[in-house]
């Protein structure tokens, strides 16, 4: 891997992380990397386990320029000390075109490559888990009970520095708009997609009139 110098606020792609196709879609602002990671609720962790490639969905959180993932301490996929690849993707829209090969999607994606470090410091592990709860369910990090010592012992946390990362994004209409000038008037456009709250239900073990805390999202 070629050496690279990272400037605060910018992404400096390496040979592994440089976008090869549609280079115009590569983003260079580190803030865009942070934004994609902070908005996405699911990351995919790729690594080699016992000689076989494995890609697993997991939840994540970012603190500064470090990405944290967690799982069972017995999970082979959460071992540290190895090279990993983490990806997240946000789909903003489906691009309907006039030709099959012009169909696409409007998206934002991030790819992070690096060394997975096992978090052994208890304070860092607790901060990472707090950040994970805050990322998935903002406000619950203060509302819910913190993990017990036994729960912490059963949990593995790994950290990946965001030094080697890339962001790629597509926006806009179909790329075959010039076909209209040739007389092709078939409809084409963008179907916008979004993630939203569909329903909030109270745990059935609680009285039905238990008030929903203010930090829980509403429809």
Your description of this structure?
This protein has 219 residues and is an alpha+beta fold. It is built from 4 helices and 10 strands, in the order βαββββββαααβββ. Strands 1, 2, 3, 4, 5, 6, 7, 8, 9 and 10 form a 10-stranded antiparallel beta sheet that branches. The protein is globular.
Task: Give short descriptive properties of this protein.
10-stranded antiparallel β-sheet; single chain; 219 residues; disordered N terminus; 16% helix; 10 strands; alpha+beta
By DSSP (H or I, 4+ residues per run), the number of helices equals 4
- Based on DSSP secondary structure assignment, what is the total number of beta strands? 10
- Between the first and last Cα atoms, what is the distance in angstroms? 47 Å
Mean pLDDT: 89
Q: Approximately how much helix is present in the residues?
A: 10-25%
Report the radius of gyration as a whole number of Å: 21 Å
Q: Determine the strand fraction and express it as a percent band.
A: 25-35%
Oligomer: single chain
Low-confidence stretches: 1-7
Per the principal axes of the C-alpha atoms, what is the gross shape?
Answer: globular
Task: Provide the structure class.
Answer: alpha+beta
**Strand/helix succession:** EHEEEEEEHHHEEE
Largest sheet: 10 strands, antiparallel
Could you provide a short overview of the structure?
By secondary structure, the chain is an alpha+beta fold.
Lay out the secondary structure.
Blueprint lengths: L25 E2 L2 H10 L3 E7 L2 E7 L1 E4 L2 E7 L9 E15 L7 E15 L3 H15 L3 H4 L5 H5 L1 E7 L2 E7 L18 E4 L27
Antiparallel strand pairs: 1-9, 2-3, 2-6, 4-5, 5-8, 6-7, 6-10, 7-8, 7-9
């Amino acid at each position: 891997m070629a050496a690279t110098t990272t400037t605060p606020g910018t992404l400096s792609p390496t040979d592994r992380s440089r976008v090869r196709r549609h280079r115009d879609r590569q983003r260079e602002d580190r803030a865009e990397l942070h934004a994609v990671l902070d908005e996405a609720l699911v990351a995919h962790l790729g690594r080699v386990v016992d000689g076989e490639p494995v890609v697993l969905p997991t939840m994540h959180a970012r603190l500064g320029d470090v990405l944290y993932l967690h799982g069972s301490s017995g999970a082979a996929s959460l071992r540290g000390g190895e090279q990993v690849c983490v990806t997240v993707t946000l789909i903003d829209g489906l691009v309907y075109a006039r030709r099959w090969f012009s169909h696409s999607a409007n998206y934002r994606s991030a790819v992070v490559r690096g060394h997975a470090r096992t978090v052994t410091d208890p304070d860092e592990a607790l901060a990472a888990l707090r950040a994970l709860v805050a990322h998935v369910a903002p406000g619950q990090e203060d509302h819910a009970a913190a993990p017990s010592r036994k729960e912490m012992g059963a949990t593995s946390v790994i950290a990946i520095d965001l030094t080697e990362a890339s962001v790629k994004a597509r926006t806009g209409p179909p790329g075959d708009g010039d076909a209209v000038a040739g007389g092709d008037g078939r409809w084409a456009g963008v179907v916008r997609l979004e993630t939203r709250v569909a329903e909030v239900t109270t745990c059935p073990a609680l009285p039905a009139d238990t008030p929903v805390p203010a930090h829980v999202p509403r429809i």
